[in-house]
Specification:
heterodimer, A: alpha/beta, Rossmann fold, 10 helices, 34% helix, globular, B: mainly alpha, ABC transporter involved in vitamin B12 uptake, BtuC, 2 strands
Chain lengths: 262, 358
């Protein structure tokens, strides 16, 4: 499992995370939600070892501060929010960059399978920089998947860290990416995703952690956590959680009359 | 699984990496041919064919032939190979490290620092105690250039490293400031210089392999070869850096160690090259660019290819420099600039609008 204890991060004089605890189980999709500036991405970056932080983070019982970069890379892969590419690599070359030395023999196969998984196998030889933003994000997901292709390695779970994985995708590919995350977890791996979309979170997450102002407000299953009170408090606005009615029943989403006329 | 159309599962037919690796052999062959040609070209009438014929028939070489071939052309060829390879591979490493195809070895401050060192030695060298001068012999200028280059790089590195992390953006900006400062000090020295020193300065700045000797080579070549060997191993790391420093670390690259090694290798290779040959421009930018256009940006092949093509081009340029106005010769920096600048402009025009931001 992933265990982050007493995580404290200061950027300049500002304390972005303040003694935060976070856990995630292998075999589950764990979502981190919260308003802008609540520290979601900062928490994710602390747990992937990008940011200097107080407190400890352990993956499968190992303190990540004690692992070498390549040991950590074999254990977890990280999808960043945005990736710029400096040179005109092709799509397949970008996916291959994420592969380990030890997998050299399987390189072509795993990379192509990962590309097929995100529906971009036919783009393998295209220059990465010519793709649209959403396509580039899916190529990056393929690269990340290729890095930890087997969700279980010698019985130990591997981990995917996804920072807003659906931010620039259309609805079909949002669903596709969330399915990929859920499949990875179903196969025994662990997934930690920073999410903006609360509906997708409710649909796909097994556990949700709600962050506000650098602290953890609530953590648990979507049913437990995504309540009017918690979400309203976290986002600082009045929110009402709806429930999908039984199948076949017509469903209305009422609007205030004044807003509708306008 | 949501249905989103998959393409074929076929392996892509064109594998640019294997093609780029196949280029190693072709470039090495051209390198050998150009090297042999360069041994036959020169102001004197000594021909390689004649010498080889004599050697084959067991006839003794004349003193003239021996001196021209073994003490003039051969060390000059070796120096050209070393300097060209050093400049080109350093350019490729710097572009990978700074994630910018327009970076060149000069960014780490070697050029500005070495230039300042050379000017100091040329203008103020005569004020040194006679004993020290005698010890340095004729190598005062290269020595000062090497130390100047190293000193600047170390200073830049210190300025841009905080809490064990080096910021390449800070390094770029600080490099510009240091180059301006070095330029100002050089300006003061130029003001003080007499006519002969001014001539020396100008020619040093244009670069030349004319001063090649086995002594200089024995000092510069080991440094350059070790640095090239180290740089050639950085391919996988530099590929990962193309995705950004954070992602490179996620993939398992020890990023700070890679940066240290890259800066060290470039400062050593370029410092030694500039010290023995002066300021030779454009090789570091044009060579990696041409190769990226020809066979893709994969550093696992690009680094070695750059060294091979850089060596070939510099030896070729030196042939032109020696033969165009024989028996006099042009500074090689003029030849590389005349050949390199149009190529560089052409690349810029081709890539207009597609240049990569930081």
């Amino acid at each position: 499992m992933l265990k982050a204890e007493n995580i404290t991060v200061s950027l300049g004089a500002r304390r972005v995370l303040d003694g935060l605890d976070f856990t995630a189980e292998a075999g589950q999709v764990t979502a981190i939600v919260g308003p802008n500036g609540s520290g979601k991405t900062t928490l994710s970056r602390a747990m992937t070892g990008d940011l200097a932080h107080g407190g400890t983070v352990s993956l499968n019982g190992q303190d990540i501060a004690r692992l070498k970069p390549w040991q950590l890379a074999a254990l977890r892969a990280v999808l960043p929010q945005a990736s710029a590419l400096a040179f005109p690599f092709t799509v397949i070359e970008v996916v291959n960059i994420g592969l380990h030395r030890g997998l050299a023999g399987a390189q072509g196969r795993v990379a192509m399978e990962a590309l097929a998984r995100v529906g971009l196998a036919h783009y393998a030889d295209r220059p990465y920089q010519e793709l649209s933003g959403g396509e580039q994000q899916r190529v990056q997901l393929a690269r990340v998947l290729a890095q930890v292709w087997e969700p279980l390695l010698d019985g130990a779970p591997r981990w995917l860290f996804l920072d807003e994985p659906v931010s620039s995708l259309d609805i079909a590919h949002q669903l596709q990416v969330m399915e990929i995350a859920r499949d990875f977890a179903a196969a025994g791996g662990g997934v930690v995703a920073v999410m903006h979309d609360l509906n997708l979170t409710a649909m796909y997450a097994d556990r949700v952690a709600v962050l506000a102002e650098g602290r953890s407000l609530a953590a648990g299953s979507p049913e437990q956590v995504m309540t009017d009170a918690t979400l309203s408090r976290a986002y600082g606005c009045a929110l009402r959680v709806g429930r999908v009615p039984p199948p076949g029943v017509p469903f209305l989403l009422p609007h205030p009359a004044a807003a509708a006329v306008e | 699984m949501v249905a989103v159309s998959d393409g074929t599962m076929e392996r892509p037919r064109r594998d640019r990496l294997s093609r780029a690796r196949a280029l190693h052999g072709g470039l090495a062959l051209v390198l050998v041919l150009v090297s042999v040609a360069s041994l036959t070209v020169g102001a004197t009438g000594v021909s390689l064919g004649g010498v080889l014929g004599k050697l084959a028939s067991g006839e003794a070489l004349s003193r003239m032939e021996r001196v021209v071939l073994l003490d003039i052309r051969l060390p000059r060829l070796a120096m050209g190979l070393c300097v060209g390879a050093a400049l080109a591979i350093s350019g490729a490493v710097m572009q990978g490290l700074f994630r910018n195809p327009l970076a060149d070895p000069g960014i780490v401050g070697v050029g500005a620092g070495a230039g300042l060192g050379a000017i100091l030695a040329i203008v103020l060298g005569s004020f040194l105690p006679a004993g020290l001068l005698a010890m340095a012999g004729g190598h005062l200028v290269p020595l000062a250039a090497f130390l100047g280059g190293w000193g600047t790089t170390l200073l830049l590195y210190r300025v841009s490293t905080r809490h064990g992390r080096t910021s390449v953006a800070t390094m770029l900006l600080a490099g510009i400031a240091l180059a301006a400062l070095a330029g100002a000090v050089s300006g003061i020295l130029v003001y003080l210089a007499d006519d002969q020193q001014l001539r020396d300065l100008t020619f040093w700045g244009l670069g030349s392999l004319a001063g090649a000797s086995w002594t200089k080579l024995s000092a510069a070549a080991p440094i350059i070869l070790i640095a090239i060997g180290g740089a050639a191993l950085m391919g996988r790391g530099l590929n990962a850096l193309a995705l950004g420093e954070a992602t490179a670390a996620h993939i398992g690259i020890p990023v700070q160690r890679l940066k240290n090694a890259a800066i060290l290798a470039v400062a050593a290779a370029t410092g030694a090259a500039v010290a023995v040959s002066g300021g030779i421009g454009f090789v570091g930018i044009v060579v990696p660019h041409l190769l990226r256009l020809a066979s893709g940006p994969d550093h696992r092949a690009l680094l070695l290819n750059s060294a091979l093509l850089g060596a070939t081009l510099l030896v070729g340029a030196d042939m032109i420099a020696r033969s165009l106005i024989a028996p006099a010769e042009l500074p090689i920096g003029i030849v590389t600039a005349v050949l390199g600048a149009p190529v560089f402009l052409w690349i810029l025009l081709r890539q207009r609008g597609a240049l990569v931001d930081f």
